[in-house]
Amino acid sequence: MSVLDHDALRDVFDFASRFREDLFDCLTTRGDELFDLTDALLCADGLVTAPVDLTLVAEHRRGHGAMYDALNCGNVDVPRLRQVLAGLPMPQAADGRLVLAVDVSNWLRPDAPTSAERLFCHVYGRGGRSSDQFVPGWPYSFVAALESGRTSWCQLLDAVRLGPDDDVAEVAAAQVRRVIVDLIEMGRWHVGDRDVLVMFDAGYDAPRMAHLLDGLPVEVLGRMRSDRVMRRPTPSLKEYAQSYPQGGRPPKHGKEFRFTKPDTWGEPDAATVQVTDRYGTARAMAWDRIHPRLATRSAWIDHTGELPLIEGTLIRLQVDRLPSGGDPLPLWLWSSATGLSGEDVDVRWQAFLRRFDIEHLFRLMKQTLGWTRPRLRTPEAGDRWTWLIIAAHTQLRLLRGAAADLRRPRPTTRYGVGKTTRRPDPVSNARAFGPQG
What we know:
disordered C terminus; two-stranded antiparallel ribbon; 16 strands; 10-stranded mixed beta sheet; elongated; 10 helices
């Protein structure tokens, strides 16, 4: 194991030591036991398969009864811990802006019929099956700050368990609003900085998220379903008079823009071509001021007054190949920003490819830290355990520079070396219809 130079190492441990002090102050009830349990998470040898095994770790100074008592009756000052996380050094994109990713990951509990507030969670191919399934469990909505460069580390900033009556979009908007306010209060964003880029997968309606986050210094970037139909900009009175000299009522929306019909696209407002190592030639086209035609049903049924006109930039990305060998279907993105240049378009789709880093974060939480391993009785205990996992992951991220990566050999299976650990591709549209973990 190699370490950094003395000054850099001192800064690394300084941030981690300060975070540990703040973390202990956030554990207001059964704090000693919750803190020991977090240390046991960090010091366990190998994967965490059960919380009771952590009581055998030397850093855990109490018995298993104290551990379950802390999870069931302890308390974590979540608002204060959120501010502590927002006050840490934030990773930034290549252009210096903050980039946040929002996604849902499920804590599946199919064998716990007496557990309260379970929902049907959408999962893919569970148990070797290729079809989608709905399994009872606890879905959690996470907000994480993404990094740039050759890394998949993320900084978790918030986590909320979704209840039976919750609207996923409204919960995500409240989370982002709370995170942005904390970042501003903790001095991580100042007036004059670039807008925070908030990215959503296709399970969220990007124009609606932009409407819910109106008034914040954010730009929404979301993936769109490939079968969507949107509208072109509303024609001006002069354009309408030239097109319809016989007169009539001016339309509220422009002509249709069907994703599946290229003859409705027209000439793009920006087009770029880049050559990449992983995907070959990447061709991006962008159309300005594209918006959906909203109707008084579904998510807008409770909206009072005239429905809003939410304009943005629609981006279509097409690549030559995928590293997985699959069919390179086009990727559709919608940004709440308008008037983007070709360079701005490239920044957006390249930033969106980093959204997949949060999937690696979920895999680390579940497979290594054992986030979904405990068989807890109440959802409140699950919330406490989730925040301990976030605290442990944050310490790992802060201290990652103190040691070099240890590259373990890939496992050998009967199908070959490492065949079961193939990395899914962020450009593939195989999972384009919902945020999953």
